[in-house]
Structures are given as structure tokens and as C-alpha cells.
Amino acid sequence: MALMKRKGIRSAEIPTASQADLAFLLLLFFLVSTVIDVDTGIGLTLPDYIPPDQIKNVKVDKDRMAAILINENGDVLLDGKPIPLFQIKNTLEPRIESKIDLPKNKKLIISVKTDRKTNYNIYIQALDQIKQAYFEVRDQYSERTYGKKFNDLNPDNQNVVKEDKIPIIISLAEPESVQK
């Protein structure tokens, strides 16, 4: 019997030469296609800088002011009276509405003052309630005057409502210790 030569069986191999290219392409794909969510923060319009020597103290009538105080426990006072956080909007709406026909220097000013240890979430909820009160009054006024919601008005009518009739005037005071 003749001995047969055994043929060597080759093992299956995966070519690894292009793995680096493939990894680079996958990395590039995910970098390009990933959307990074960026928090934009709170949209506030800050006043222009006024040098301290040019600051004038102006007396404001008490009926033009709505003072909101928030202590470190999250208790809210509106003009010295306790109020639930979710009732700020309903309480402010009639006061904002009562000043619609007055000149701009007679509109309601809402002052928000917090304790240094106030929970930030409660502070933001209070600001949201205040802005919602203004937005509701703007919608109601727009419906009565123009027959449309505020957002459906043309830009000129929106400016009349926003700038002349119902401007948002919120004073954010420096945090301090607020007692119950």
C-alpha cells in the first residue's frame, strides 16, 4: 500500500487587515450622526448695564407691585400672604389684566425674591407660573380685541400686545434669607 500524503487542511481565517478602517468608519459615522442635546438655560432678557453712580431710585406704588417670596422650604408668599405654588398664575391674572389700559410706566411689576437655599426647581416653577399668567392674559386680550389667539396674530399686532398692552415685567431680586 502506498502511503498517501495527507494534505494539510487550512484553517478558516478572517482577514484582519481592514478592521482598523472599519472601526474608524464606524466611529466617524456615530460622531457625525449623533445629536448632542445642549441645555439652553432660562430665556431671560437682562437689562443693560448701568454704572452705579447713574442708578436712580424710583418710587413704585404698592398697587403696581406683586412681591413673591420663596423660602428654603418652598413656601411661597404673595404680598405677605401664603399661597400654594400652583395658584400663582390664577392669582396674578386679574392683577395683570387690571393694568392693560394703563401706560407702560403704570404696569404691574412682579418681584421674585428667594432664600439662598431655595430649591431651584421651585424657583423655576414659580417663574413658569408667572409667565403663564402673562401668556393667558395676552391670549384673552388678543381674543377680545383681534378675535385670535396671541400666537396667531400678525407680528405688528403681537408687538402692540407684547410691548404696549401686556409687557412682562419681572424683577428678580438678590436671594437672601426669607423667614416664614
Please provide a written account of the structure:
The chain is of the alpha/beta class. It has a domain at about 65-170. The chain is about 35% helix and about 10% strand. A hairpin with a 2-residue loop joins strand 2 (about 75-80) and strand 3. Helix 2 (about 90-95) packs parallel to helix 3 (about 120-145).
What is the overall pLDDT average? 85
Question: What kind of sheet is the major sheet?
Answer: 5 strands, mixed
Query: Could you estimate the helical fraction of the residues in percent?
Result: 25-40%
Range of strand content: 5-15%
C-alpha-based Rg, rounded = 31 Å
Low-confidence stretches: none
Strand order of the largest sheet: 3-2-1-4-5
Quick recap of the structure?
By secondary structure, this protein is α/β, with parallel strands linked by helices.
Supply database-style keywords.
180 residues, five-stranded mixed sheet, 35% helix, 5 strands
What secondary-structure arrangement, pairings included, does this model have?
Layout: H1 19-33, E1 65-70, E2 76-78, E3 81-83, H2 88-97, E4 109-114, H3 120-146, H4 155-165, E5 170-172
Parallel strand pairs: 1-4, 4-5
Antiparallel strand pairs: 1-2, 2-3
